[in-house]
Amino acid sequence: MTHEYLLEAKHVKKYFPIKTGLFNRVVGQVKAVDDVSFGIRAGETFGLVGESGCGKSTLARVLLKLKRATDGDIRFEGQNIQEVGSSDLRKLRQEMQIIFQDPFGSLNPRFLVKDIIAEPLRTHRRMSAKDVDARVVELMELVGLDVSRRNRYPHEFSGGQRQRVGIARAIALNPKFVVADEAVSALDVSVQSQVLNLLQKLQKELGLTYLFIAHGLNVVRHISDRIGVMYMGKMVEIARTEDLFAHPRHPYTKVLLSAIPKPTPHRMTERIILEGEVPSPANPPSGCRFHTRCPFVQEKCRIEEPLLEPAGDDRQAACHFPL
Amino acid sequence: MAEKILEIRNLTTGFLTDQGMVKATDRVSLDLEKGKTLCVVGESGSGKSVTALSVMRLIDYAGGIITEGEVLFNGQDLIGMRQQDMLNIRGNRITMIFQDPMSALNPVFTVGEQIAESLRTHKKLTSKEAWRQSVEMLRRVRMPDPEIRARQYPYEMSGGMCQRVVIAMALACNPELLIADEPTTALDVTVQAQILELLLQLKKEFRMSMLLITHDMGVAAEVADRIAVMYAGAVVEEGTVAEIFERPRHPYTIGLLKSIPGLEGERGGELYTITGSIPPMSKIPSGCRFHPRCTYAMDVCRTNEPPLSQSLTGHKAACWLDDTGADDPRPAKPNNREAKVTIGTRPEVTQP
Description:
Strand order of the largest sheet of chain B: 6-7-8-3-9-10-12-11
InterPro entries (chain A): AAA+_ATPase, ABC_transp_ATP-bind, ABC_transporter-like_ATP-bd, ABC_transporter-like_CS, Oligopep_ABC_C, P-loop_NTPase
Oligomer: heterodimer
Pfam families (chain A): ABC_tran, oligo_HPY
Keywords (chain A): ATP-binding, Nucleotide-binding, Transport
Structural class of chain A: alpha/beta
Low-confidence stretches of chain A: none
CATH class of the largest domain in chain B: Alpha Beta
Radius of gyration of chain B: 21 Å
Protein name (chain A): ATP-binding cassette domain-containing protein
Structural class of chain B: alpha/beta
Shape of chain B: globular
Low-confidence stretches of chain B: 336-352
Family (chain A): Belongs to the ABC transporter superfamily.
């Protein structure tokens, strides 16, 4: 059986209760991810962008079942991951891995680097100690780490090298799907380009599918085949990278793209400066969630919520009046 | 020659560690003309923040020791000044804004009180007058409902609003020089655009000069008049925005610009990388500090440190390639993106 998507999410919701008072009474819900549907195709890099608090990291964690979805369907290779039992989940975990943002916080400081990389192998595979060692050496070479330093602790490595350790750990079990959650955001420019090249090399060699989350739009543009834009828990636009940058259809995407400071000086660009603040996610605006700040708002936007609908060749936008 | 508000000469600041004195900046020289913006760009550990803290003489409190050099503010040396006398300058004539607006504010005072504090201290205003002016400052940084917001605490505000409060605090005494250390790094891109725009407008309104520290070449391109590139504690190149972006001379600047993924043109190919990583300040290489990572390194680079040499237009770079007269292997135009650049006016800003 073949599927169009390696991973498909349908109407995925993740609500966090707001509790208050002595008895932790639930007084409301923060809708971190609210009715998001999209798919990631095998072998592609799907970029996910949006500002802090828009729900992109929560969505990624729900897709990996690191957090349980409040509602909705998530299928990985056609299998509903919401319903799998614990032994199947163990198998599933080997196929789905994550690289975290913070190269300092995501590595156990009391583990040797070789043990950090070997941990998934020891957990999931029955391998002899010799085979584990051989695989660790292989992985370290693959991600460009000096093998002679395998008996050292994470603090002896630089930020870029630690991120390589995190990548080696993520690919140790030959996963199909890797989430890179702000994997290069904490790195300096000259190191960032090294890690981006590594991620692309690994994708080619190992046939990986990436969900690449970042707020640096130039980085997302560089690495992604398709991009999804999120605003306040909603997916507002999905399009191929070239199409999105050439002709954004959702006003929020347009604003986001225009806000990036460009390293080409004195360029005549049109900049749209947003007025106001991001509304509280506990009490989102009626209708279109972006209507309070949208430069092109109309009456219908205040009342009726737009759905993510086809808006051209292989693209979707959630706007009543797409640009 | 335009008047200079700030002249930094051979500023060397070190920290005493187990390995002895480790220099964080090494003979840094920078000039800032009145009314202009100088951006200091560089990666982590390049010494940008230490330079700023040294100018403010705050480095004394961070454990740093200024071992050499002078900092002239309107011709007056700040390095030899007693901390007591610095109090009249810091927070008054030179002010600073920091990266993280949340931790720059005191959580137990309302934002209005925090702005009023500097007005009472430096301008000797009465409490009532200071409060009136701090509300006015909030209005000037385009804070919505300034009267209400002045009575609120930092936790009641978003990151962007907190940064507006910090800017209001910094500008309350009408400073001559504003030092901004990564003022937008902690903010989202749309908020960053708001704050950068605000800083540019306020710079004009208050007739200030600005020293802006950033790691983001895009931010530097948008706000700077001149840019200084720092690497491992030293200034390696300095010039106008156009010079740095279109005709960079130092291989580090060239590499840095090439390794940023672009926003247009080809994408997805392999990115240019500068091999290796930034050396720790305790192990600065001999000769040119960039030579182990430089594609064009020659014998002289390994042994002798290149001086910061100046071209006729004032574009400075510390590279031996400028001196040898040999065929210059550096690309004439390193930007792999086709940049259509119009020099002159800043792009108009639309505010729908």
